[in-house]
Write a structure and sequence with these properties.
By secondary structure, the chain is α+β, with helices and mostly antiparallel strands. The chain has 6 helices and 7 strands, in the order ααβαββααββαββ. The longest helix has 8 residues.
Length: 188
C-alpha cells in the first residue's frame, strides 16, 4: 500500500507566486483534454491500469477502508510532444457498474473525452493542492513529466470526482510547470 501524508486539498487554495500562473488550469471546470487539444497537437500515453491501493487522501475522499484495492489508471497528456499533465484516476471496485466496463475498455483513449461526452456524468467540486516530495503522487508525476533531472520543489494538482449512478471516480491531474505558459484557443 502506498503511504501518504495528510494533504490539504482546497477549493480555493492560497496561491503564492508559484501558483498564480496555474490558477486558470486549477479552476477550469471544462474538459482538460479539450483545452489541451485547443492549444496544439494532443496525445495521450497510458502508463498503467491496474488494481492498486489508492493514496490515503484518495481512500479518505472515496470513503474506502485502508488497504482496499481500487482500479487505478495513470496517463500522461501531451501537447505538441511535451508532457504536460500526469493524470491519476481511481475507481472503487464496488459497486460495479457501467464505469467499471468503460474504464476496462478505454485503452489509449482519453478518459476526459468520455466523461464530458456523456450527459449523465456529474462532476463534483474541484479541489487543488500543492504537492511536494512527501506526497505519493509527486515522484510518479515527476518521472511521467520528464522532470527527473531538475525536479521542482512542488507541483500543482487538481482533483474532482465524477459520478454516474452509484459509482464515483476520483481524477487527480498534476501539472508540469510548462503548462503555465500554454495558451489555448478555447474560451474559459
Amino acid at each position: 500500500m502506498r503511504a501518504g501524508i495528510r494533504t490539504n486539498w482546497r477549493a480555493r487554495p492560497p496561491l503564492g507566486a508559484d501558483g498564480r500562473p496555474f490558477k486558470s488550469w486549477l479552476n477550469d471546470r471544462g474538459s482538460l483534454t479539450a483545452r489541451l487539444q485547443s492549444a496544439g497537437r494532443f496525445a495521450l500515453a497510458v502508463l498503467g491500469q491496474r488494481l492498486d491501493a489508492p493514496t490515503r487522501d484518495e481512500a479518505r475522499r472515496l470513503e474506502l477502508a485502508p488497504g482496499r484495492l481500487a482500479w487505478v489508471r495513470e496517463v500522461v497528456l501531451y501537447c505538441d510532444g511535451r508532457p504536460l499533465v500526469f493524470a491519476h484516476s481511481v475507481l472503487p471496485r464496488r459497486p460495479r457498474g457501467p464505469m467499471t466496463r468503460w474504464l476496462a475498455r478505454l485503452g489509449a483513449r482519453s478518459l476526459g473525452a468520455l466523461l464530458f461526452a456523456h450527459p449523465r456524468f456529474a462532476r463534483g467540486d474541484l479541489a487543488a493542492c500543492r504537492l511536494d516530495a512527501r506526497h505519493p503522487l509527486f515522484r510518479p508525476a515527476v518521472a511521467a513529466l520528464g522532470l527527473e533531472d531538475a525536479p521542482p520543489p512542488a507541483l500543482w494538482a487538481r482533483r474532482s470526482s465524477f459520478s454516474f449512478g452509484c459509482q464515483s471516480l476520483l481524477v487527480t491531474e498534476v501539472f508540469s510547470p510548462a503548462v503555465a505558459g500554454l495558451r489555448s484557443t478555447r474560451r474559459r
